[in-house]
């Protein structure tokens, strides 16, 4: 009897230990904020949608779908911020069950794509943001605690890919307001942590006063107290200079800026050039955040940034404005990354993405941000000579571009910028652009020039077997090595010759996906297969190729297709078609601009890769 009793005690003790072990493992600590920040990259806001008062579509957005989120991921973003309203979706303080379920559905769309998600309480009628005052402090803290307790409980099983953000742009401007704001953030932290589960170690984000970098630097000298170390980030926003980023009409104190940045000022529309807030100002603000937080192990997100796109008429220069705007986005993203900040672009319906179809509406702007994040430099190697295009460290407008054997120097690295269906090549060492100089004569040198909107700086990419050709938009001449084999010899141009000297290998530096080398023959269907492919020939077909508007992908068994991924020559994904395919025939390419693209069809047995060309 005694032995049986001992056995019962031991069994119960073991069972208790097992239950405790399972419970502990189920809610294991999530990674630190620094670890998560290291994985977060280019990020995008689902703007004017979930934060719209009382309806997802109230501010012009379509109903958000998995296809839209797939397209955002395909465009190069791995983090999505979901600005969200809650107050008007409540009754007697209880969040509407249908609303929080809808928010969960969109969070799940993002999680399905392995994206990081920032979920916040946004402006929400201003109940918190407009009441950072001592008189409202008690009532706001009560509401903050109530809402975050409900939200956190609903999502507490989610892993580290979901982050919570306390507020949006809280209106504090002095030490007293900062003290009140800190209490709102403390209530947020306490409410989330009290729900337990994964929320015990989830990364939480708190906002600086007005999310202004200068105020945050001077006033935010302490963060909320947390029960666990290393699980907090700081959020700021950046819309400066105001005249370039947000101003939509002139005022008596100043005019709108249309042109921003070195090399992007107008020589004729000078009153619209930015007079403050350019590169050095941006860099100095970002450095404040780096020094105050990032260098101390506290990651910082730039939760919002954007700049208005104006539709201009003469004498203003529309193309220069658009080029300047792309430069702003590219420069901001590059500067943020270099200082350890995570930039999240603000987007509203009808700007970057078609919210109904997921189609990219501003490919140039998306490419600019990807270039800023990925440092999308390329080198070009001549087929005939093996020499690389080299800026020769020549910084004078009109200087000839040269050729040199591989050296790895910055003079051989070129930033590829898209301008519609053309590209511009900017030298990393000098900042000058490869320029045809308006020269139509065979054999003359190709030059370099500071940025302009001239067609002489724009080049089309044409397929040439396993190589490419570059044709100048202004002159129609092709970039040509002229069969010169000496280091330092000038780079030339020549009318079409089909010679090896006009053929180039484009190598990428710092891109997430390298250019795929394969063959396209005009008038034939592409049939190149990856070495990794186990897909039998004939199971997948693409036609027509080249194509004018769309092409058709034909698959024998749609159920076996995991995804269809389309990327441009710079390696950026431009479209993803995921499961389930509705039929054996899928149409794609409608939103693509003229040029060459890589199509990868992933199936249960392997991958088949095609190169397709969209004609003008």
Record the SSE blueprint.
Layout: H1 2-26, H2 33-39, E1 43-45, H3 66-74, E2 79-82, E3 90-91, E4 94-95, H4 97-112, E5 116-120, H5 137-155, E6 162-165, H6 175-194, E7 204-207, H7 213-219, E8 232-238, H8 242-245, H9 279-292, E9 300-305, H10 318-338, E10 341-345, H11 363-374, E11 377-382, E12 388-390, E13 402-404, E14 414-419, E15 422-427, E16 433-435, E17 447-449, E18 459-464, E19 467-472, E20 478-480, E21 492-494, E22 504-509, E23 540-543, E24 551-555, E25 561-568, E26 573-578, E27 585-588, E28 595-603, E29 607-614
Parallel strand pairs: 1-2, 1-10, 2-5, 5-6, 6-7, 7-8, 8-9, 9-10
Antiparallel strand pairs: 3-4, 11-14, 11-22, 12-13, 14-15, 16-17, 18-19, 20-21, 23-24, 24-27, 25-26, 25-28, 28-29
Descriptive report:
The protein is α/β, with parallel strands linked by helices and 616 residues long. The protein has helices spanning 2-26, 33-39, 66-74, 97-112, 137-155, 175-194, 213-219, 242-245, 279-292, 318-338, 363-374; strands at 43-45, 79-82, 90-91, 94-95, 116-120, 162-165, 204-207, 232-238, 300-305, 341-345, 377-382, 388-390, 402-404, 414-419, 422-427, 433-435, 447-449, 459-464, 467-472, 478-480, 492-494, 504-509, 540-543, 551-555, 561-568, 573-578, 585-588, 595-603, 607-614. Helix 5 packs parallel to helix 6 (175-194) and helix 9 (279-292) packs parallel to helix 10 (318-338). The longest helix has 25 residues, at 2-26. It starts with a helix and ends with a strand. Residues 1-25 and 510-538 have low confidence and may be disordered.
């Amino acid at each position: 009897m005694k032995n049986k009793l001992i056995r019962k005690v031991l069994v119960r003790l073991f069972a208790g230990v097992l239950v405790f072990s399972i419970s502990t493992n189920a809610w294991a600590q999530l990674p630190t904020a620094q670890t998560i920040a290291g994985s977060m990259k280019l990020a995008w806001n689902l703007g004017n949608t979930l934060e719209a008062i009382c309806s997802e579509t109230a501010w012009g957005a379509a109903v958000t779908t998995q296809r839209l989120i797939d397209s955002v991921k395909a465009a190069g973003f791995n983090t999505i911020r979901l600005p969200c309203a809650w107050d008007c979706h409540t009754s007697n303080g209880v969040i509407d069950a249908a609303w929080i379920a809808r928010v969960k559905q969109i969070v799940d769309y993002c999680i399905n794509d392995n994206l990081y998600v920032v979920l916040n309480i946004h402006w929400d009628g201003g109940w918190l943001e407009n009441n950072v005052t001592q008189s409202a402090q008690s009532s706001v803290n009560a509401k903050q605690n109530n809402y975050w307790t409900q939200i956190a409980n609903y999502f507490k099983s989610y892993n580290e890919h979901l982050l919570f953000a306390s507020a949006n742009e809280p209106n504090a401007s002095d030490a007293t307001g900062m003290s009140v704001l800190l209490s709102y953030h403390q209530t947020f932290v306490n409410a989330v942590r009290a729900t337990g589960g994964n929320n015990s170690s989830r990364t939480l984000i708190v906002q600086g006063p007005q999310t202004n970098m200068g105020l945050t630097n001077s006033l935010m000298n302490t963060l909320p107290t947390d029960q666990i170390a290393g699980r907090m980030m700081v959020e700021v926003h950046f819309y400066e200079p105001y005249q370039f980023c947000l101003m939509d009409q002139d005022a008596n104190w100043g005019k709108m800026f249309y042109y921003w940045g070195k090399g992007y000022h107008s020589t004729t529309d000078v009153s619209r050039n930015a007079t403050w807030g350019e590169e050095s100002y941006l860099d100095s603000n970002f450095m404040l955040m780096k020094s105050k937080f990032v260098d101390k192990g506290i990651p910082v997100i730039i939760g919002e940034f954007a700049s208005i796109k104006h539709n201009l008429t003469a004498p203003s220069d529309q193309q220069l404005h658009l080029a300047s705007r792309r430069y702003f986005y590219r420069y901001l993203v590059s500067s943020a990354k270099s200082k350890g900040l995570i930039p999240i672009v603000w987007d509203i319906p009808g700007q970057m993405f078609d919210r109904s179809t997921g189609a990219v509406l501003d490919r140039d702007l998306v490419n600019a941000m990807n270039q800023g994040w990925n440092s999308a430099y390329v080198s070009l190697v001549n087929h005939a000579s093996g020499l690389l295009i080299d800026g020769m460290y020549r910084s004078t407008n009109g200087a000839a571009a040269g050729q040199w054997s591989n050296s790895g120097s910055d003079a051989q690295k070129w930033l590829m910028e898209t301008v519609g269906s053309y590209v511009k090549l900017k030298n990393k060492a000098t900042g000058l652009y490869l320029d045809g100089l308006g020269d139509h004569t065979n054999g003359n040198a190709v030059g370099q020039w500071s940025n302009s909107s001239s067609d002489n700086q724009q080049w089309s990419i044409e397929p040439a077997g396993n190589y490419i050709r570059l044709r100048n938009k202004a002159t129609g001449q092709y970039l040509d090595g002229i069969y010169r084999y000496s280091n330092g010899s000038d780079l030339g141009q020549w009318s079409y010759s089909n010679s090896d000297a006009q053929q180039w290998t484009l190598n990428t530096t710092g891109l997430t996906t390298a250019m795929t080398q394969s063959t396209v023959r005009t008038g034939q269907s592409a049939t190149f297969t990856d070495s990794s492919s186990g897909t039998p020939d004939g199971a997948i077909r693409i036609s027509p190729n080249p194509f004018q508007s769309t092409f058709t992908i034909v698959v024998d068994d749609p159920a076996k297709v995991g995804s269809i991924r389309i990327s441009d020559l710079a390696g950026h994904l431009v479209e993803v078609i995921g499961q389930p395919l509705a039929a054996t025939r899928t149409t794609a390419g409608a939103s693509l601009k003229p040029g060459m693209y890589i199509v990868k069809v992933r199936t249960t047995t392997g991958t088949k890769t095609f190169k397709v060309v969209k004609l003008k």
